[in-house]
């Protein structure tokens, strides 16, 4: 196998959820694809880090030219309700179904001492700052229903600034234990949101 093709397969196989067989199929697809498509694909990848950054308020992904993401800039959003998610992909899953009309806060992961991730490594301090400085009535803790997600939700609940009366809700347990929001089917996710307590 040519070294360039082997290197491409190795790079694709490094992506989460993609094994060597799928990586080989994708690499061969790119080899046979129209040159303009491959050029656009490569250009998009090369600009990924330079053209995107975190929203200054919620830590979602946004264009480098914007300080705030489209959700934080939208005046129609119900800013008194804040949905706290682990990762940006969880925000996308919730938004795809139009389940939440409020704001978001992306933690950037979960507390996992085994993996060397502590509370200070996440966007928890900025969450507390938002609670203190913004008129927030409800926090929806939409962390995943696994050990790390539950531990992170508990950490946030126990350390929330008590100066403000904030209602704290969790998604209902329609989500399976050790389940991930990004993989939940639409009906389960809708019910988990509607039946939160």
How would you portray this structure in words?
This protein has 197 residues and is of the alpha/beta class. The chain folds into two domains: 3-46, Helicase, Ruva Protein, domain 3; 78-194, Dna Topoisomerase Vi A Subunit, Chain: A, domain 2. It is 43% helix and 14% strand. It has helices at residues 3-13, 20-32, 35-46, 48-51, 70-73, 88-96, 124-133, 147-159, 186-194, and strands at residues 52-54, 61-63, 78-85, 102-106, 138-142, 167-170. The protein has a four-stranded parallel beta sheet. The protein has a two-stranded antiparallel sheet with strand order 1-2. Helix 6 (88-96) links the parallel strand 3 and strand 4. The longest helix has 13 residues, at 20-32. The chain is elongated and about 65 Å long. The model has no long low-confidence stretch (mean pLDDT 89).
How many structural domains?
2
**Which architecture name of the largest domain does CATH use?**
3-Layer(aba) Sandwich
H/E element sequence: HHHHEEHEHEHEHEH
Count of distinct strands: 6
- Total number of helical segments? 9
User: Numbering strands along the chain, what is their spatial order in the largest sheet?
Assistant: 4-3-5-6
Return residue spans where pLDDT drops below 50 for at least 5 consecutive residues: none
What is the mean predicted local confidence, pLDDT? 89
Brief descriptors of the model:
43% helix; alpha/beta; 4-stranded parallel beta sheet; Helicase, Ruva Protein, domain 3; 2 domains; 197 residues; elongated; two-stranded antiparallel ribbon; Dna Topoisomerase Vi A Subunit, Chain: A, domain 2; single chain
């Amino acid at each position: 196998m040519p070294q360039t093709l082997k290197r491409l397969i190795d790079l694709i196989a490094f992506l989460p959820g993609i094994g060597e067989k799928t990586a080989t199929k994708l690499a061969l697809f790119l080899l046979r694809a129209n040159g303009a498509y491959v050029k656009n694909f490569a250009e998009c990848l090369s600009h990924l880090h330079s053209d995107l950054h975190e929203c200054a308020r919620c830590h979602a992904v946004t264009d480098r030219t914007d300080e705030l993401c489209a959700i934080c800039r939208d005046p129609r959003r119900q800013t008194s309700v804040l949905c706290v998610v682990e990762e940006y992909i969880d925000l996308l899953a919730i938004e795809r179904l139009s389940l939440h009309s409020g704001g978001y806060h992306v933690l950037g992961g979960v507390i996992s001492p085994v993996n060397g991730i502590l509370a200070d490594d996440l966007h928890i301090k900025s969450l507390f700052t938002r609670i203190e400085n913004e008129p927030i009535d409800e926090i929806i803790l939409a962390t995943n229903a696994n050990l790390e997600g539950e531990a992170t939700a508990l950490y946030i609940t126990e350390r929330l600034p008590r100066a403000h009366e904030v209602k704290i809700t969790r998604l209902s347990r329609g989500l399976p234990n050790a389940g991930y929001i990004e993989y939940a089917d639409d009906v389960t996710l809708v019910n988990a949101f509607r039946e939160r307590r």
